[in-house]
Structures are given as structure tokens and as C-alpha cells.
Amino acid sequence: MTISRRRLLQVGSLGASLTLSDYLRIASANGAVDSGRSAVLVFLGGGPSHLDTFDMKPNAPAEYRGQFKPIQTAAPGVRICEHLPKLASRADQYAVIRGITHSLADHGLGTRYLMTGNLPTPVVDYPMYGSVVSKEFPAAPELPSFVSIERPVEGPGYLGAEYGPLSTGEKPRYGQPFRVRGITLDGTMTLDRYRRRRSFLKDIDTAFAGYEQLDESVRSLDRFSGQAFQIISSPKARAAFDLSHETDREVDRFGRHEFGQSMLLTTRLIEAGVRFVTVLLEGWDTHQDNFNQLGRELLPNLDQSLAAMLDRFSEQGRLDSTAVLVTGEFGRTPKINNNAGRDHWARAMCSLMAGGNVRGGQTLGETDDKAQGPEGDGFTPDDLAASFFQNIGIDPKTEYQANVGRPITLIRDGATIPGLLA
Amino acid sequence: MYASAVKPGLVFLLSLVTFGGSADAEPLPPANQRFQSAETEEVPEFQRHVVPLLGRLGCNGRNCHGSFQGRGDFRLSLFGYDFEMDHEGLVADASDSVGKRIDQSEPANSLILRKPSLEIDHEGGRRFTQNSWEYHLLHRWIKTGAKKSAPSQELLRLEVQPKEMLFSQQNQTSQLQVVAVWQNGDREDVTPLCRFRTNDDSVAVVDRNGEVTSTGEGDTHVIAFYDNGIGSVPVMRAQTSSRFVPVEIGPEMAPIDRFVVTKLNKLNITPSQQCTDSEFLRRASIDLTGTLPTSQEVREFLADTDRDKRLRKIDELLSRPAYAAWWANKLCDFTGCNPQQQAELGQELSVQWYGWIKTRLDENLPYDELVRKVVLARGRSPQQSYEEFARETSGYFRDDPSAQFSDRETMPHYWTRRSMQKPEQAAEAFAHNFLGIRLQCAQCHKHPFAAWTQNDYRNFSRFFENVTFGIRPEDRDAYQRIAKRVGMSLRGDEGSPIRNDALRKLSAGTVYPWRELYIKQRSEAEELNLLRSGTVELRRETDPRQPIMDWMRDPNNPWFAKAFVNRVWASYFQNGIVDPPDDLNPANPPTHPELLAWLSNSFVENGYDIKWLHRQIVSSDTYQRSWRPSHNNREDQKNFSRQIPRRMPAEVVYDSVKQVVAASDQAEEVRADLTRRASGHLSMRLAGTYAMRVFGKPERAVNCDCERNNHPTLLQAVFLQNDPIIEQRLENSGWVQEMKDQEAEGNLQSHRKLVSEAWLRALGRPANRSEIEQSVQFVQQAESVAAGMQDLLWSLLNTKEFLLIK
């Protein structure tokens, strides 16, 4: 922790008036290798059915395969669900990872495992992806490094609260002004009034005058207070969160539903220089009525918005520098239950990766004929995490001095999935 | 009744280091002398010489052969002490085609000699040369049969000389000597076989031969590791300061101050002056009661001319319900109260847990009694039938409760958490919660900095095997009957969790079938080693927690009282006397050993009186020092020569903001009404909310005091500057509303008065003249006084002075 704080201090001391490119130039001149990568995590909370999305088993008995049909995609040999036509025609842009397996069929534990790449234990609180990224690749001072749309998916763990996400508190809704918790200046609060408050604050915050550098607590309060002011008052940060800058065509391309607007916001944030964004699409916990819920809403929304994000990143030449992971916390029971639903199933699940060095247009790993478990050993959430970090440009074997009294390897047990990355 | 007793053993001594004074024979000279020549006839010993040598050479380190995957197909136990495994690893055939790891017929051909001397390639580089004593020692061991040691020789202690090192200038050096004393009376100088470490390399460094070099002013420890022993030596270098005048230690000086000042005098550090009255009042109010003083209280305290007013204030604060409320938060931290980990109804059960502790603190129940009621908790009292138990437990949830959980004799929720169901996890949590020690390393390997071996870990875990949460076999019918009545579906014989949807019926008086904390019979009687403090005989029906509790209450217990007083101390200063406060181990020695010993012994002698402990600390000069540095203590971070500003804890930030903006006639109520306070009844209701997470209220999910994070962060700054919660508080401020009303009626107080009041509320001190001038001007520039005051309050809440305890 000492190291991290010292490092942060150095970054902070670069001063307030740097632009992003200044910062990157200095960072690379200092030898701090900056991959320039950003990342997006689309979390499909609740545990999406692998059999009804990206790991279909059309030849399994009816009580397993369900009512959806697979369709051909742009990638030879890769077949996915018929309710994902847009993603099917873009299959060359992502890789499907099948046969991911673990044993924590509980939402809390499963999420913790998938979001950290380490089996949960009461001894160590592991950090979420975004916290690691904001530690390794901090954003420019006037931007938050790590944003969670609506609410965080897991926290900074042993890295400490300073690497936690800025969460927006709510999802953007079409046609309504979007207020970001802590960032947006609200109705009655004008920028002028905020500046006036801030300047008066500077006048009266003098209790430690002459001793500003003496103690860490005093130093960091000053530093963070200044940075918060920059973020809140910066036109750049404000613009990044403001969806009214988008044309109707873009709004429609992403979809007018909450998830579409969230994905559009995610895209804007990444374009502005935020390093890590988490975005939620929930509702996959389909113990009942699985097919209607997926077919009518979840799959079409995912299809539209994810395809739109991939397209926009490609159009802007940003896909190569943005690592994308789409995953839930587990799969669902291959055998359909009496309520036309599927229950929790951790022995097999699937995820999607795109951007960065991902070799698209392929599937990796496979499950048995009823999608009950992987063929062979399969992959673990640790492997998935190692691969994601690798793709972001962070060595999964990086060690941190955690405050539990021993060094901790970022991803102890996982290895990058062979063939996934170019 | 339980039938077991702790048999005190010699092993207590192992964690201590004793110095000189013994009339023992001269120790055996060090191995680097005895194996200097290749011609020696001595036969090296595996445990005493070979394994420590491999440790010192770094072979069994984490990045080399001690890695859990080994290196180059060769694996040693991490940090040694698994002699079976290490011996097997050494004598086993290497898959390497270049030769055998150990070649008894031609010792010089052994890979363990050729590789580290770089005769052939070795990824780990050169560790010794061919004519070194290290080479000779290993060569002799191979040549004489590469034998294993006799099973388990016990190291009694390490004797380290000198007792302390006092340096006076840069680069001055001093040599450590370490003597190992074995249980059979053997004594050997093991200096060249030790691993050494410094705890602060800006004060002193130590080389691999045990030579210590002064690198800066200040104090730290150097640590020696050998076999299972650990020795530490304090190293100090006083400040060079011509203006330094030692503080006189008079007979009236409080014991705490005596210990602290004695060390400061040794280091030539002049402590800071006493803090001001307003600083004291704000600091003590927050630390003791988690509450800001009201403006009225500040005025009265400053006007009070009594010499003993600080002592009187301490007693008054200790008698307030807010004291019990705030410290219940801390004890919930220490014991791990977490809604996510409760077996059922997480929110409700954690609220009960908090409330139970708060009531005990209100009664000022002695600490050992409080812990006993947690440690020995059971679901029901011996006379109670299952039906009565179910009725009583359901009764806590009724709208008109038939019984109060906080009136319960014991508090079972500690044990019924899901995180306590595996004996190993229970053992780790228990050791952390009540002893301040971290056992978890020893699950996989010998603890690198403590004496704990995997065997100690396994033995301690086994105590917890029969602590059970479920349905006793003889109660299953009764359980089923109640379950059927409420339509619960059952899972197995162990009973099912009560789900949240039961709460409505529970509040209307329905009786639910609860699972129960009880002690299952062990399958057989056995003897277990209790953390190297003797063995305990557990009969089949023994409650295994009883002998642990008895042992903890033994006044000679090395950790129980110490862990608590150190944690309490750490709540009042930036550091514990041992820091991190939850890591008591011989390689992490206290900065003030005599102080810690005095404080914990006196705490025990005073009947574990928690308020006594608070009073001792808060009334000391040491606690009441200013944060402003003296002429030479700016660098001092760990000798308590001044108060280092600390950030307010999450709950206190939350409550303080409310207090600052409250309507004048509400101020007292907002402060005193604990049902509306984040450090009061809302403590567990608010746990996990955005504000609490941002300000570092601990989730209490892992065994680490570090989970409560009081470091400032960017998000906190964003929160205080622009979060909707803060804006709402300012928008809906009763006080600002009052001003609006008065402004409209034209009978507003003077701007000066308003400004002064704001200062007292937020910062607990009167504003000075220039602050008042600036503020009045600022308020007058706003479109209305109310709006101006709103802006002013915003600014005050965002000062460092507001957020820091200084």
C-alpha cells in the first residue's frame, strides 16, 4: 500500500493543468509503460443461460436444448442464438469462450469470483478488475479512472478505497436529463456558484497553513479536493457524461432502452479517456419463464447495444485499444425445470471477449453434448481473468503488497487462454 | 461441566527472547568457523544446520524452490520447517539429466553443490563458492550419509546480543550474535545460519551476516530468524539537536506519559505542546462518542475555568449513551459483525448483534465477561425446551417484542455466521478477533514471522469441529411440527434458514422454527495443543471453547488483553503500539514494550474495566498533545510525540454533516437521538450503503482491521463537494430554513453571530477575526443571507479541518 500511495502522489504532483496527452507523454518518459488501453466490462447479472445464448446444443433432447434455434454467423463454424442476429453478423469481432467452469452457484460468491479472478476467501479481499486498471493506468486528472454505471460490481479490495469506482447512482434513461452522482451539477447548483464556494473554501481552509506537506492525511485531502473540483467543473468530464451531445441516429443505434443508453454512455466515457467502465444488464436469473424473458427483451437489447458499441469503437479505430469482456457469474441448468426456467449452474458457463488483441471469429473451449460441463478441463474464472488482464496490458502475475502481510499475485491460479489473443 | 485444564508448557517461552545472565556453558562456535576447512570431522545436522543454511541462502524462498510449484523440478517447504518434505526433496532423483541432486558416492557431483556454486548453470545464480564454509558444510552432510535429523527437536529460544543498539552517527555498525538454545541444553552460536531483516531501512540495515549499519535517525528493530525461533533487537539513533532539553519525569507523571517520554528522551525528541481546549473537546468527543460537540457545549467548555475540566469532560463523555453506541461499532469491527455473512435474516441479526454489544458497553461489563458471553454462547439455556427456544427467538421480532435480544445472556450470532462453519475458518477468525494474531499463513506453510507451524494451525482448528449450528437430533420432531405450521420447506436434517419473507409473520407473532447453536459430541476424546501454550484434553462432551476461554482469562495469557488494549490505543492515535494492531507477532515488536505490558497488565488488574482503559489513554498528556510539531518532531511517526491528524470514521462523517445543518432547536436532539445516528441504531442498517462504502466503513468480510479505511480518497472529495446527499442536507437544512423565515420576517440575527455559530458547529472552535470578516463579506455577496450561509456551510464541510481529527 505504501508503494501505491507514493506512486499516486507522484502522479498527483504532476500538477493540475496537464492534458491527457501531456500526462501520457510524461508517464512514458518516466518509463511507466502505458499501454493506452481502456476496458469495458458488461456484466450480465443473474447468470445468463449459456445454452440459450452462445453455447447452444441443438442436438440435445428437447428438455435441454430449449426452444431457441442457432443461426450461422459471419465466422465459419460459429453458431449462436437466433435472437442475436446483429452479433451474429459481427462474429469476426469477438471470441466466444465456452466451457468455463467453477463451483460457486451463489450470486454473491459467483460474482466475486468472476469479477476478481480469485476464489473468494475470508482471508483476502481481492480487487475488482477496474480497480487494478485504475491503479495501473490512472486517467488524466480531470477524469475519473474507473466508472461504474448505476452501481459498482465488486470493490477495490486490498488495493484500498482510492481505487474504487465512481458510480453514477442511476442508469441514463432516454429522454430524461442524466444526473451522475457527484459529477453533475444539479439544477440549483450552477458552475458559477460552485466556483464561488470553492474559492471561498480556499480562503478559509487555512488551519494547516505552513504544514500542508507534513502529514499524509493533510496532503491527500488537498490533492483529492483539487482533483474532485477539476472533475466536477471540467467541461470535458461533464461532456463525457452528457448524452445530449449524441445524435438521434446514435441514440437509436444503441437503443432507447436503459441498457442501450448505458452502453452509449460507456462508449462516450471510454472515448473521453476513462480507463475502465462497468455496465450492468440484469435479469438473467431466469428460474421461471426463461425463454420469454430472454427472447423478448434481454437478448434483443444485448444484441443491439453490444453490436452498436463494437461498431462505434471500430469506426473510430478504438477497438484495438479497448478490451471488452461480457460475462455473468455462472451458467444455468441444462435441463429445463417445471416452470420453463433454468436454475443456477456453475459447472458450465460462457463469456465473450473483444477488442485489444483478441482474435475474433472463433470459439475457445467446448462443453459436452448437453452443455453440462466442459470437455476436458475447461477454463476457470481465473483463466478468464488472466486473459482479460493480459489483453488490457497488465501482467496477471503482477504482485501487490497487500495489507495482509504477504505479497499477493494478482491472478494466482489462472493462465491466459491459449489461442485467444494475437 | 467441562473437564479439562490447560497444562502449562515450556513452549510459552518460545515467543520470548531472553538475554544473557545465564551461567550456561560457552556456546558452540559458529558454523562458518567450524566448517571453514574442508578437513573438519564434524557431522552437520539436517534440522540445525542444513535447513537453516538453505533458508539463509534463499533456497526455500517464495520465488525459488519454496514456491508451491517448486523451481526446476525441485521444491522445498516455504520458509522451511517441513523436514520430512525437505529431506525427501533433496534425496529424490532429479529429473535433470546432468546428475543427481545428492550423490553420496561422489558428493562433489551433487547438484546441490554444483548448481549453487555455478559449476553448472543455475537460474538462481551463485549462492556460494567451492571453498566456502557453506560448501564444506553441505559436502560433509552428504558425505556422512545425508541423514535426516532425529524427530522434532525443540528449539527453546534464541538469545540475541546486544540487547539494544544505540547509534550516534551515520554508517556506524554493530554486530549481532545469535545463540540457539535447544531443549536438551545444547547451545550453539547460529549467527551465520540466521536470516536477518530490518523493520525500517531508513533507520538501519542489516546484512546477511548480522552486521547492522545505522542509516538514519529514529528507531526500529532488526529481526533474526532461525529454525522456529525469532529474536528482535531495538535499534535507535537519537536526533542531533542542539536545542533538545529532556523532559523531566516527575513522580506526578501518569504511567503512560512516563513510558512515552522516557523513550522520547532517549531519542532526543521534544514532544509537542498540549492541544488547545477546543481541540481537546472535539478530539475527545469524536474518539469517545463518535460525535461532534454542540456549539453550546464548546462555549461552555471554553468558559469553564476549572483546572480539572478535561478530566470532568472525559467522565461525562464516558457516561453518555453515545459512548456505548460508538464503541459498539468498534467492537463489531473487532468481532466481524457482517449482514452478508449471517446465516439468515442478515440485516436483522446484525442489528441484534450491534445492539447486544451496545447494551453491554452501556453496563460497562468487563471485557473478559463480554467476550465470555460471545465465546461460550449457545442457542438456548439448559432448562429451555426447543419449543420455548423457538418462541423466545421469534419473540424478538414481534411488533410488541415479548423478549429483547439485547437482554440475552449470550450472543450466539458470532458463531452462526456462514463464515464460521468450517473449523479452519473459525480458528483463523477467532485468533484474529480475540488474540490479534494472524494464523492463516500456517495453513499452507510455516509462518514466516511467527512460531506457528502447520501442526499448530491444524490442532487449533480442531477445537472448533463440534461447534454446530442446526437442529439437535432429539429436537427434529419438534422442529418439523413448527416448520409445518408455517409452511417451510426443509432441507436435510440440519434445518433451513428463515427467509426474509417470514419477517411480516414474525412481527405479527407467528413462531418460526429456528436453528440453534449447540455443541455436538466429539467422536472421541482427544488431546490438542492450544497454540503452543500447553495441551488440552477434550472429552467427548466438553465444550471445546471453555478451555480456550479459561486460557484467555489467565492473567499470563500473552495475547488476550494485549490485543484489546492495543486495538483501543490504535483508535486514539495514527498507530497501535504494535502496528498493524491486529498483527501481534515476535517479528513485529511493539514500539513501547513496557507501555504495552503495563497497559495490559493494569487492564487485567482493574478487572478488564473498559472505561478505565479509555480514561487512562484520553487523560494522558500523550493523547492530549497538539498536532503542531515541536522544533524537532516533524519526522516522528511512531513515538506519539504529537497527535497526527486522522480522518473521521465513516459513521462520524455522516452524523456530523447532519449535526452541522440541524435547526437550532433540533441540534441537541440530532446529537443525542441515537436511533437516527449512523454510529447508533442505524449502524448496521446503513452498512454497505454508498456513503458508508465511500468513507471506508468496513464490510467485516475478512480478518483484517485494515478493512476500516480512514484514508482520504478522491471519491470522498467528490461526495463532500457534490453528492446529492450533501446537497439535500444543505437544501433541507433546518437551520438555513430558520434563516430564510427570519429573513422574511426581518428579524434575522447578525451575520457575525451566524458565522460564529457555523464555525462552532462544524469546527468546534470560535472563528478568528479575519475568518469572521471574510465570511461576513462572502455571505453579504450572495443573493440572500440564507443562500450565502448555505454556501458557507458547504465550504466548512469541505475544509480539511472539518474532516480531520486534529
TrEMBL record, chain A:
Pfam families: DUF1501. Residues 360-380 are annotated as: Disordered. InterPro entries: Alkaline_phosphatase_core_sf, DUF1501, TAT_signal. PANTHER family: BLL7424 PROTEIN, DUF1501 DOMAIN-CONTAINING PROTEIN. This is DUF1501 domain-containing protein.
